[in-house]
Amino acid sequence: MKNILPIALSLVFTLSIVGCKDKAEEANTSDAEAAAISKSTSEKYTVNVAESTIEWKGFKPTGTHNGTISLDNGVFKTDDGKLQSGTFLIDMTSIIVTDLEAGDGKEDLEAHLKGTVEEKEDHFFDVTKFPTAAFEITGTESLAAGKTKLSGNLSIKGQKHNISFPVTITNNGDQITIESEPFTIDRTKWNVNYGSKSIFDNLGDRFINDDIELKINIKAKKA
Question: For residue 82, which of 6, 65, 70, 205 sits 20 to 30 Å off, Cα-Cα?
Answer without folding.
Answer: 70
